[in-house]
From TrEMBL:
One Pfam family linked to the record: CN_hydrolase
Record's keyword terms, sorted: Hydrolase
Residue ranges occupied by any CN hydrolase domain in the UniProt entry: 3-241
Xref: InterPro entries: C-N_Hydrolase, C-N_Hydrolase_sf, UPF0012_CS
Protein name: Aliphatic amidase AmiE
Organism, scientific name: Leuconostoc inhae
Top-tier EC class: hydrolase
Signal sequence segment: none
Length: 263
C-alpha cells in the first residue's frame, strides 16, 4: 500500500501556544496542498520545553490541542500524528501525543513513558504507562516520543503487537546528539523491520539548539528522505508498505524471537 507521508519540521516559540497553533495549522494546509495521507508533528509543539511555566501554559486535558488537530484532520482529510503537547490531567503534567484519523476521530492518546533527565523533564512532568499502537490510514502503527527511542525494548514491545508496519517518532532533539538520533532510528528500523517516520524541531530555546534532520527510513535502515538541521520545512515522501513484507519474508525476525528467555 502506498502512503504519502509529510513531516512538519517546525520551529517552536517557547511558552507561546497561540503562536505555535498557527504554525501547526499552516503546515496542515501545506500538507493538504500536496495531498499527503499522513502528517507528523514534533514533540511539545504547544509550549516547547517551558517546563517551569506549565501551571500557566499546559493544555487542560489537551482540550485546545485536540480541538485544533481534530479540526485540521477533518478539514484537510489528513491523518495526523500530533507530535506531543504539554497537558494537565488530574493535577499532573504530561507530555502527551494525540493521533487523529482523516475523519477527525481520535485513534490514540499517549503520555511519554521515558522522561529525559538531562532536560529536567522528570522534575515537572509525570510519566505515562500505556502502549501507543493504532491503525492509521489502514496501516498498523506505533508511536514514541523522543527519549523513548533510547529504549529498544519498549519499541519492540509496541512493534511486536502486530507487528506494526510504521513507527512514528516526535522529538525535540538537540543538535549536539543529532548523529545519535539518526543512528538509533536506523537501528530501530532494521531491528523491527519497519518504516520509521521521525519528526524533530528546529530552532532554539534558553538551553538548547535543536537539530532538525527529521527523516523517513525504510525497513532496511536506509534513509529515504531527510530534512536539514536549521530550516523549517515540510518533508514529503511516498512509502510502499509492501517493501516491508518483502524484508520480513526474507528474515523472519518476529517469528524467530525467543521472548521466554528475555528479561
Ligand atoms: N526531549 C527529549 O526527550 C530529548 C532526548 C534526547 O535529547 C536524547 O539524547 O535522548
Amino acid at each position: 500500500m502506498k502512503l504519502k507521508i509529510a513531516i512538519a519540521q517546525i520551529d517552536i516559540a517557547l511558552g507561546d501556544p497561540k503562536h505555535n497553533q498557527k504554525t501547526v495549522a499552516y503546515y496542515a494546509e501545506k500538507a493538504a496542498e500536496v495531498n499527503a495521507d499522513v502528517l507528523v508533528y514534533p514533540e511539545m509543539w504547544n509550549t516547547g520545553y517551558a517546563l517551569t511555566e506549565l501551571t500557566n501554559l499546559a493544555d487542560t486535558n489537551g482540550q485546545d490541542s485536540q480541538l485544533l488537530l481534530s479540526k485540521l484532520a477533518k478539514k484537510y482529510h489528513l491523518n495526523i500524528v500530533g507530535g506531543s503537547v504539554a497537558t494537565q490531567q488530574n493535577h499532573k503534567f504530561y507530555n502527551t501525543m494525540f493521533v487523529f484519523d482523516a475523519s477527525g476521530q481520535k485513534v490514540s492518546e499517549y503520555n511519554k513513558l521515558h522522561l529525559f533527565g538531562l532536560m529536567n523533564e522528570e522534575k515537572y512532568v509525570s510519566a505515562g504507562s500505556m502502549i501507543n499502537t493504532f491503525d492509521l490510514a489502514g496501516i498498523k502503527s506505533a508511536a514514541a516520543i523522543c527519549y523513548d527511542i533510547r529504549f529498544p525494548e519498549w519499541l519492540r514491545t509496541m512493534m511486536s503487537v502486530g507487528p506494526q508496519e510504521i513507527l512514528y517518532v516526535a522529538a525535540e532533539w538537540p543538535i549536539q546528539r543529532i548523529e545519535q538520533w539518526q543512528i538509533m532510528l536506523q537501528a530501530r528500523a532494521i531491528e523491527n523491520q519497519t518504516f520509521v517516520v521521525a519528526a524533530n524541531r528546529v530552532g532554539r530555546d534558553k538551553n538548547n539548539v535543536f537539530g532538525g534532520r527529521s527523516l523517513i527510513i525504510d525497513p532496511l535502515g536506509r534513509v529515504i528522505q531527510q530534512a536539514g538541521d536549521t530550516q523549517e520545512t515540510l518533508l514529503i515522501s511516498t512509502i510502499d508498505t509492501d517493501d516491508e513484507k518483502m524484508v520480513r519474508g526474507q528474515i523472519p525476525v518476529f517469528d524467530d524471537r525467543r521472548p521466554e528467555l528475555y528479561y
